[in-house]
């Protein structure tokens, strides 16, 4: 297994384009069978995860993280906030026990003071800033303030009128807290912590936000959201929320405090009221999020500026209260088995949970047969997949139906394109699986096959110097009156699939 999570902790005094973004993970503990700290750290090391955020400062966990080099953000739980915010001595004692006792062996680089305090614990808001200052003072006294930054995570719901981003502003009720708080972050070279959940924005939009826009899927230019005030184009919800926070800060005259996203993700399972909490969507969101962050794409307002992000979360937390989705945000189950395989081949860095990287593209269960036929015709035509193996008498002809044949064609295209992002979608009728769809003598590209060696998928593609006359013909599954218009539709859609 090898998930490569890079790279460098954001330690800045202002918004800068000179630093690389990193991806980290949050580690929750609401599991009925929580792995012990040694097991957790073993998983982190096996996955090469270099940045983690803890929701507390558990001593055993911090000891297990010692001498690993993993950069750790520890947290002051909300229930301890009032005591720390009212007493400098209490704050100093907390830092002594939970930070100073563990550095430098444990690479603590951040302290998150509380979590979404303004929206979940408003009675503690008056002491939030003093808690930050008291914690920071204790770090200064120990000469750790350059190494360890202090901040507090906010819910994105504190931002009002978040679209268009240029009109966003913080809930003015919190101005007496927010203005001095951001001034503190600015003066200490820290960053604004923001929790960004496009899943909830999508769910609460009543259909206004398209699913593709929430999942970072490619959008045609006419479907992009445009901020009429700045003419900036937004292709995903994540960027729009981050920029809304930047604009909200600029509204109160702060323009050089960087944002770190302390939580973002997508649930892999939900109840009947959450039909889009699926393994496929969770995979798509997190794969695209990781690629987007690590490519240092930045946002439309700040292109190229790092937006380092912690994925929520490492494990599925089966004893969390609430709906089914609350228990299913994890990348792994409690045994360290991946919930799904991240697909990031071709992102400049390969991030995957599976050492064999044996993944396949198949027809989605319940997909519209007409859409499958259109996509099949495209794959075997403009997609340049050799579909002769599907003809009568050939190894993959049976079962002779559009689902089986499109599965072969989809996978052949997916493997030929080196499993690049977006090459297993086909207008939403394809999905990725780790189950080898090979059967009998029909060995799919990418399969280990019967002799244990991988199929040479490059042979599926015509050579680069092939002429148009060498291209395989469109594969016609049936001779119904539907076939001709489907072929036309497939040709028209070819630019979209490519």
Automatic annotation (TrEMBL):
GO biological process per UniProt: carbohydrate metabolic process; defense response
Enzyme Commission number(s) from the entry: 3.2.1.39
SMART domains per record: X8
Residues annotated as transmembrane: 474-497
Record-linked PROSITE patterns: GLYCOSYL_HYDROL_F17
Keywords: Cell membrane, Disulfide bond, Glycoprotein, Glycosidase, GPI-anchor, Hydrolase, Lipoprotein, Membrane, Plant defense, Signal, Transmembrane, Transmembrane helix
GO cellular component: plasma membrane; plasmodesma; side of membrane
GO molecular function: glucan endo-1,3-beta-D-glucosidase activity
A Pfam short name: X8
Reactions that this protein is recorded to catalyse: Hydrolysis of (1->3)-beta-D-glucosidic linkages in (1->3)-beta-D-glucans
Source species, domain of life: Eukaryota
Domain (X8): residue spans on this chain: 359-444
Annotated localization: Cell membrane
Bilayer disposition of the protein: Lipid-anchor; GPI-anchor
Signal peptide: 1-17
PANTHER family, per database record: GLUCAN ENDO-1,3-BETA-GLUCOSIDASE BG1-RELATED-RELATED
Family the UniProt entry places it in: Belongs to the glycosyl hydrolase 17 family.
Name recorded for this polypeptide: glucan endo-1,3-beta-D-glucosidase
Species the sequence originates in: Jatropha curcas
